[in-house]
User: What shape does this take?
Amino acid sequence: MDPRTTTSKREEGRRTTPRGVSRRTFIKSAGILAGTVAAGPLLSACGAIGGGGGTSGPLKIGLLLPYSDIYAVLGESITDAMKMYFEGIGNEVGGRTIEIIAEDTQLKPDIGLEKARKLVEQDEVDLVAGVVSSGVAVGLRDYFHENKKLLIIANAGANVLTRAKKSPYIFRTSFSNWQPNWPLGGWAYENVAKKVFVSAPDYGAGHDMVSGFLNSFQAMGGEIVAEPQFTPFPQMGDPAPFITEIQQAKPDMVYCFYSGGAAVTFVKAYGEFGLTGDIPLVCAGFTVEEDVLPSEGDAALGAKSGLHWALQLDNPTNNAFTAAYKDKTGKDANVFAMQGYDTARVIAESLNAVEGNTSDVDQLIGAIEAVEFPSPRGTFKFDPATHNVINNVYVRDVQNVDGELHNVVIDDLGEFADPGDDSKG
Ligand code: PHB
Assistant: This one.
């Protein structure tokens, strides 16, 4: 749909998300009414694997996160913030003491699956949370879906998990890769330039983000000056050839998505080649998020980005969260920490609602769907049709604020739910 024809972007987001969809509707639309669920090879006679799911004893939460490679800081931020939230509520929910078992997935789907099996079948966790990389998340989907185990994704944005491969057993507290990018495409066309060069890592998330951005940008009349540049993932290697290709294409604007170590590599090279301040950089907010900004330095100045949070969002929950995180870690909070914090709260609120009983997975799913609270990002609520969070999207600008680089909010694009299909990128 042409973004210009929508009444308002805020309404557009709402229209795609009918509230009050019942659980039955969700299951039907996911094509998995009872009886059609393919039983996983490990299903036991009683229909569940692992012993996790109980009413007493410690509440075991498995964490699947990268603690190595280019997204290690993302995994650490999510972990720190989850623990911080749980500490703040006395490490207890629904009358049960919280026990966290964390595993390093690296960025490898096969390692992710192996660690998931270990958490569910050996450690007998009550539920699993985490997952940073889209590739790892997609690799886990069938295991959790077929075995009816709960997975709460705290970062990985793979669109397909909210679309063709959505599952009642999978929730996402972070974003779909479409969410920050589609609103940004229209904004960039109106406010920055009409001709773009796009660059992203060559894996699921890179392709999702580019397609969300281009869908709205091109619908407005925007043009791409060259084929999208997809760089090696996870290690980009020498960024020089990629930046040279951009220079030679002479675009009026560059759009990119990078994160963690790759964001630092790309943005620093962008500065070293003299592109900062010369060709405007518009990006998915992760590229210049607070975890990487200190290393990117002035090369990031002026970058405009779309994201569902900013360090300086002024609301009571964000002020308390950012202060507590700085106190605990000595660092500014970042969007990944914020997502970890909200994930912990979703777990706490739903577990309290079912009085710590994880043995009835349907009851727990209902409790998670109903969770709504003031988050550092604004109101937190799930879209019942997809189990993906509904996000308000902001445009931020990297500015020097009292001698430090931060993302300053310069526009509020409103509320967006993932469309639930591929019609808009
Ligand atoms: C993803 O793989 O889905 C992903 C990774 C890092 C980000 C955002 C999305 O910052």
User: Anything to note?
Assistant: The chain is about 35% helix and 20% strand.
